[in-house]
Specification:
Two copies of one chain form a homodimer. Helices cover about 65% and strands about 5% of the residues of chain A. By secondary structure, chain A is mainly alpha-helical. The termini of chain A are far apart. The structure holds a DNA duplex. Chains A, B: InterPro entries: ArsR-like_HTH, HTH_MarR-typ, MarR/SlyA-like, WH-like_DNA-bd_sf, WH_DNA-bd_sf.
DNA sequence: AGCTATAGATGTACTATACAACTATCCGGA
DNA sequence: TCCGGATAGTTGTATAGTACATCTATAGCT
């Protein structure tokens, strides 16, 4: 293995390790900032906002969740008043999900808290590094459609996924 | 708000969003690569390897887990034969935890799988970007000692391996 | 009409987790 | 020397998130 190959391998390992650390932390703490909205709930609501309303199956496909999981999450969020179901005129099996004003509110609050937490971590970084980090993360998550670290690899019909997935 | 401020805010939001996406995916898929070792188990074993043996309380502090959670995880990993407890000569309340050969093996296998998954996602990236991404992630996770995303800030000896733990 | 695919809900089971209470041990005074 | 508080870990209990299998209703093709 050449030096360059070794360096590359070490960088990939570091990425793997650091992403894992982040995942662990995010998971452990997600619920503490806003106990009323877990990480999953947050991502589901965020997708509703981005998409302007979608079906439960879209949420399941997007996040690699089982439809039963989404069904229960949706019910909980509905009971909390954060989203509402509307009939889908073209398909009576499905229901369009939409954020309610309360859902929009809570989403904004949580987003703000999370933004603040991240901003704190980025305190002292130069603008170029912040911009570069954002760009690399976006590229990483957009990734090859062939599933990386557990990406969902679903055939998406929606090309805007790379931006909207949360 | 100036243009520059706006761009900075958008970058921070993107980081927040993309890290969240990653966390969601990692969590959803972590167990699938190696069903015998969850994300948490993996990180615990990895820390045992890095530290060359430590106490349960260190694992709890490092990952922001409750000691009861760690206690149960440790018991499960012990029953799987991946770690063993040794008495701590200087403190009879505590037990030093050490990887067994089987634990070392499985850890290497999972690390390899995860490495491969990440490498696949990074296919097509230039060496400089990979190196830069690794560096930024390390810096992000090392973070300000003052808790960002909810980090707890623990002091530890190995600067390379993630730091603060939340 | 009939067959199959799809959207979602429900029954069930399991894992990870936290918090509280408990045991055993350690340590710093008085 | 003994005691009270701190610490390491275990166990009891409760909860969330999740998957898989199954069920209902609807779509849509042939």
């Amino acid at each position: 293995m050449t030096d360059s190959e070794t360096r590359h391998r070490e960088a990939v390992d570091a990425i793997q390790r650091e992403m894992t650390v982040f995942a662990r932390r995010a998971r452990a703490f997600a619920g503490r900032l806003h106990p009323e909205l877990t990480l999953v709930s947050y991502t589901l609501l965020a997708h509703l906002e981005d998409s302007g309303g979608c079906l439960a199956k879209d949420l399941a496909a997007r996040y690699g969740l089982d439809k039963s999981t989404v069904s229960r999450q949706v019910r909980a969020l509905e009971q909390l008043g954060f989203l509402e179901r509307r009939s889908a005129p073209e398909d009576h099996r499905a229901q369009m999900l939409h954020l309610t004003p309360a859902g929009t509110d809570i989403l904004a609050q949580v987003t703000e808290s999370r933004h603040a937490a991240v901003a704190e971590r980025l305190a002292g970084w130069g603008d170029a590094d912040v911009a570069g980090f954002a760009e690399l993360l976006i590229r990483y998550n957009a990734g090859p459609e062939t599933s990386g670290d557990g990406s969902i690899t679903q055939e998406y019909s929606n090309p805007d996924i790379t931006e909207t997935v949360r």
